[in-house]
Amino acid sequence: MESKLFIPPKIWRFIPAGDPLVDI
Question: Is residue 22 classed exposed, middle or buried when 0-12, 13-18 and 19+ CB atoms within 10 A define those classes?
Answer without folding.
Answer: middle
